[in-house]
Write a structure and sequence with these properties.
- The chain folds into 2 domains: about 200 residues, Vaccinia Virus protein VP39 (Rossmann fold, 3-Layer(aba) Sandwich); about 55 residues.
- By secondary structure, it is α/β, with parallel strands linked by helices.
- It is globular and about 60 Å long.
- The longest helix has 16 residues.
- The mean pLDDT is about 95.
- The chain contains 9 helices and 12 strands.
Length: about 270
Amino acid sequence: MKDESAKKQKTMADNADIHELYEISVQNVEHEIEFLQNTFSSLKGRTAYLFREDFCGTASASCQWVRQGDEYKAFGVDIDSSVLEWGRSNRISKLDRSDQDRVCLIESDVLTAKVPKVDLLAAFNFSYFIFKTRESLLEYFKNAHNSLLEDGVFFCDMFGGPEAQEENREKTKHKKHGFSYVWHQAKFHPITNFIRCHIHFYFKDGSKLEEAFTYDWRLWSAPEIKELLLEAGFRTATVYWEGEDDDGEGNGEFTPNEEGEADLAWIAYVVAEK
């Protein structure tokens, strides 16, 4: 009877999978891969087939990449063995057998990973903000440059605006899935630009997962990122800024922009050609 009672008392938080919740909340790999491929094609006049996903986590982007066809191959690099195993069990295993064989996950520091050169390398979800000094970020960008084929392209994302330098919380409800996602900027230091952020999940039954994910980053600016990419050897470093719909909200369409807009909060891509 005690076991039965314990089972009945389990909350939504007890039964939740933080990786599933994360993907629902912040990832849209279909849109990401479409943006990567369309942008690469417009720049190079050809299709990219070899993809490297740094800080790949669950490898959802790599899985989406190989779904494009039999000629596509993906390499996912992450230092966290547990999240890679989750990706193998919950994402790669759900691919068609032929697609599974074209995703290679590598447990390694992104700076030392042994990976064949690729057409396209991406570091998304601000993961490279983990490099907190100019020297370490430059080293990473040089490594990215060396990891590309001769006409390869590097993609990364970034965020900014005055609200990025505040200590605040932003809640997004996912009613269909019965939870809310909370982005919590817990600490920001204006002298160093070091920022500590958490992701919390709150459920409709009142249960919650506090600090499901924590990030200790440096908030890099667009000029710093562009300058370091060029110093690392890239020929170009172009910011792709999000357009607006009729209501002044982001429309999900990103195009080259040399100035941006003075928005309170923004997300953009940086595209660097070798």
